[in-house]
Write a structure and sequence with these properties.
The structure is a single chain. This protein is of the alpha/beta class. It has helices at 10-24, 45-54, 105-108, 152-161, 170-173, 176-188, 206-219, 275-284, 290-299; strands at 2-5, 33-39, 60-67, 75-82, 90-97, 118-121, 141-144, 167-169, 194-202, 222-228, 234-241, 244-249, 255-259, 266-269, 305-309. It folds into 2 domains: 2-171, no CATH class; 176-320. Strands 1-4-5-3-2-6-7-8 form an 8-stranded mixed sheet, sandwiched between helices. It is elongated and about 70 Å long. Residues 166-296 form the Glucose-6-phosphate dehydrogenase assembly protein OpcA C-terminal domain. InterPro entries: G6PDH_assembly_OpcA, OpcA_G6PD_C, OpcA_G6PD_N.
Length: 327
């Protein structure tokens, strides 16, 4: 069920939602959290699609705010989705003009589910300080995506300077499968010190930096990031040990090859994760991600991390990639 409302108020939107639920025969809501998406104009479609897919695992009320500029006359339009098109969610898309183009707690507070967690997600631009944002202050979880920001390197640096419990970034969550596989490799090897870590990937991928920071801090090793201008993210990791070098190389999007001393090469499943998968993982836990906080702070101004950029470095199958943030 879809309902369009022009030039409205938050109170009227809340009433319309209640009326739509009654028409559907649902007098109460079964949503477990409120997901607030603060999208930039022209960048909301992918975020909404991902949130709706994630809602099948986490039934939510999804509030999407898109600002159309403070130079317009004040107006708030809304589009409501319930049932069918909204998956397991209630979806409210707000289009704000004038003063309503700035997302604030007072603007959306009347639409928040009572007594349920609040998660706020910036799918494109990264705020200067997520925890101090008007809506970020009331959220249990604050999700950014530095890889999709206009300047990923500066975004990562800014996030490291203001990290607070509850902050997280999708560039970190994209590394979950890589971290699991690297940990599994060490479980199969005899103990041996790691002298050097090398990570290959896009110069515009924060995931490359975060993985290097995580490995360097956990293994107490020097880190070299070999970056390329090719349009793809992370594709190779080398761990130089005293007994030889361990390599995990994923030339495509799904299968990686692990090479380790004294063992035959083995292929493993290491697929690029979708935006919906990453978001769903984030919504599974609302407690502080302390490991992310430690790694984030260790990545910036790290004297043991060296970045070597090579425009001639082109990974195999890079033509299949269109997004540098894929990890």
């Amino acid at each position: 069920m879809i309902k369009n409302i022009k030039d409205t108020t938050v109170g009227q939107i809340a009433k319309e939602l209640s009326d739509l639920r009654n028409e559907e025969g649902a007098t109460t809501t079964s949503r477990v959290l409120t997901l607030v998406i603060l999208a930039d104009k022209g960048h909301s479609k992918l975020a909404v699609e991902a949130a709706l897919k994630a809602s099948y695992e986490h039934p939510s009320r999804i509030i999407v705010h898109v600002g159309y500029g403070e130079d317009h006359e004040d107006r708030l339009d809304a589009r409501l989705y319930l049932g069918g098109d909204a998956g397991a969610a209630e979806l409210v898309i707000l289009r704000g003009y004038g003063s309503a183009s700035v997302p604030t707690e007072s603007l959306i507070s009347g639409l928040l589910l009572p007594d349920s967690p609040i998660v706020v997600w910036w799918p494109h631009s990264v705020p200067q300080n997520p925890a101090e944002h008007s809506i970020g202050r009331i959220a249990q979880r604050r999700i950014t995506d530095s890889a999709r920001s206009y300047d990923p390197e500066s975004a990562l640096e800014a996030l490291s300077s203001c990290y607070a419990d509850g902050d997280t970034d999708l560039a970190w969550i994209r590394l979950t499968l890589w971290r699991i596989q690297i940990a599994a490799v060490f479980d199969q090897l005899q103990p041996s010190p790691v002298k050097k870590v090398t990570v290959w990937g896009s110069a515009k991928s924060p995931s490359v930096v975060l993985l290097g920071g995580w490995l360097g801090s956990r293994l107490d090793a020097d880190v070299h990031l070999k970056t390329t201008a090719a349009d793809r993210g992370l594709f190779r990791v080398e761990l130089e040990r005293e007994d030889g070098t361990v390599t995990i190389h994923r030339p495509g999007k799904k299968i990686a090859t692990i090479s380790s001393p004294g063992s035959p090469d083995q292929q493993i499943s290491l697929p690029v994760r979708s935006l919906a998968d990453c978001l769903a993982e984030e919504l599974r836990r609302l407690d502080p991600d302390e490991v992310y906080g430690e790694v984030l702070r260790s990545c910036v101004y790290n004297e043991r991390m060296v970045i070597e950029h090579d425009d001639q470095l082109t990974p195999e199958k890079s033509a299949d990639y269109t997004e540098v943030f894929d990890a």
